Automatic annotation (TrEMBL):
GO terms for molecular function: ATP binding; ATP hydrolysis activity. It comes from the Bacteria. Gene3D superfamilies: P-loop containing nucleotide triphosphate hydrolases (3.40.50.300). This is ATP-binding cassette domain-containing protein. Residues 9-240 form the ABC transporter domain. Keywords: ATP-binding, Nucleotide-binding, Transport. SUPFAM superfamilies: P-loop containing nucleoside triphosphate hydrolases (SSF52540). Pfam families: ABC_tran. The lineage of its organism: Bacteria, Bacillati, Bacillota, Bacilli, Bacillales.
Amino acid sequence: MSSLRNSGLCVKDLEVEYKSGQLALGRMNFTLPEHGIYTVIGPSGSGKSTLLRAIAGLLPAYQGELLFNGKSLRDKATLVGLVPQNYGLLPWKTVQANIRMAMKIAHRSTESKAKQEEGITRWLTAMGIPELAERYPLSLSGGQQQRVAIARAFAILPTILLLDEPFSALDAITREALQQLFLDSWLANPATALFVTHDVEEAILLGQKIIIMPSSKQDSPVFVDNETLFGMQHGEKRDSDEFFEQMKRIRKVMQEKW
Ligand SMILES: Nc1ncnc2c1ncn2[C@@H]1O[C@H](COP(=O)(O)OP(=O)(O)OP(=O)(O)O)[C@@H](O)[C@H]1O
């Protein structure tokens, strides 16, 4: 049994250097309880995508340890879903075939075909795009591709869900609608989610904690608790006093650390 100290996502002395010798991510140490949404903001180049890639197992090498409930992520025993910045959809497969393939890889065909098809329809519907099932990714708008990528990530029912600026290609209204869809979908499958965004408001509207990456690789990230807002109805957050207080708090940290 894992002790409480080891439960959740544990990042121990993580440091990433790419082949060029450039330090992409300074030493990081933190533990995040499971079943939470953690938003990550930081200046360009501070290592947000690199952090997600390390957790997703996409880096050939890194220093330190990544554990989930005490088990190393290197062992691939924990199912991780990633929505990368470029959506990562296969252009030669239809929307539904993209999702089907991800489900097959994740569950190694242990699921019945009927259950798989039901899952595909359910997640496309949850993202508001059931009519796009037969279309090919390159015939879709950027925002539609983002929805497909999010549906695909949720459809594999991951334990850890990583999202790299998933709503960046959306207009403000669609973005708000998708934030709500994301929260509803997360409630249906409360993965441990790391959500990278450039938008401070979005970080406050979605995260249970907000992780602020520093510009200096020698500095540590700052964690801002956001439980009060996280517990509110999504539609009421933006107009609340707590939202404005949180904006002020975070801007202060940004001024100091960026
Ligand atoms: N494949 C790579 N090879 C070499 N260096 C890389 C590679 N990918 C990223 N880097 C470098 O690592 C650092 C962190 O990059 P990363 O993409 O993680 O930052 P980020 O915070 O996600 O930036 P952005 O907000 O612009 O997406 C940067 O200095 C970047 O130039």
